[in-house]
Amino acid sequence: MIQRVLRRSSARDSQTGGDSDANTAVRLDGVTHSYGSAGGRLDADRDPTVIALRDVALTCDSGETVGLEGPSGSGKSTILHAIAGLLVPTAGSVEILGTDITRLSDHERTRLRRRHVGIVFQRFHLLPSLSARANVALPLVQAGVPRSTRRERATTLLSDVGLSGRATHLPSELSGGECQRVAIARALATDPDVIVADEPTGELDTETGSTVLELLTDVGSDRAVVVASHDDDTLAITDRVVTLRDGSVMSDGG
Ligand code: ADP
Ligand code: MG
């Protein structure tokens, strides 16, 4: 039911699309990003300009799960942030459901993200003062879903990730793996068309990891998932693996 409500209009219907294939949910083209310039954050201890991505091209179709692998610092998180519209790359285009989000205003980009993209951050980013259930329900608040529906949906999702007994706990009262599962449940709350997940199983045992991966990828659905991981079990469930080195795509399709 909530799926219907939240999918009532896709970005393809409501916004001027590019000329992407109808099935391409995510398309990066010529994406270059430097931190420390063009609005990137500057850290005095680093080189003033760090080139994190160099001319990256990447696609993920609806219904596809793409893995991103590569050593620490190779640009995985930067790509996920660009897909989620949390940063605008220095150059290149990032199309989500046919819309180049680099051309949107901040407000429009945020709106598109809230409607269509779920994010699992590497460090979870749970709000410390909110219970597990309230954290999971937060994207539904932003989407304007009524309170009773939010509560029901958040309760179901917590149970799906094996945390029924933890709904009223604060993040500080949960283990790392439990926080990770709350973050995953939150990313699923709006049943998004696109999910980006940064090392989503890093804190989980193999069995729990595969359960949450099944939830994230929602096999048989048209959800597009881009997942950064070092974990072979995680990469094994992807349809395609893209390998990065120093901000460049080394191979695509391994
Ligand atoms: P990965 O996720 O593969 O470890 P990242 O995308 O986090 O890689 O980082 C790519 C490069 O960008 C690294 O050299 C990293 O040090 C740099 N970087 C990441 N975030 C920032 C930032 N906020 N400010 C400056 N440099 C950054
Ligand atoms: Mg990273």
Automatic annotation (TrEMBL):
Comp. bias intervals (Polar residues): 12-23
Region Disordered, residue ranges: 1-25
GO cellular-component term (any): plasma membrane
Record keywords: ATP-binding, Nucleotide-binding, Transport
Protein's name in the database: ABC transporter ATP-binding protein
InterPro entries referenced in this protein's UniProt entry, alphabetically: AAA+_ATPase (IPR003593), ABC_transporter-like_ATP-bd (IPR003439), ABC_transporter-like_CS (IPR017871), ABC_transpr_LolD-like (IPR015854), MacB-like_ATP-bd (IPR017911), P-loop_NTPase (IPR027417)
Pfam families (alphabetical): ABC_tran
Residue span(s) of domain ABC transporter: 26-254
PROSITE patterns reported in the protein's UniProt record: ABC_TRANSPORTER_1 (PS00211), ABC_TRANSPORTER_2 (PS50893)
GO molecular function, one term: ATP hydrolysis activity
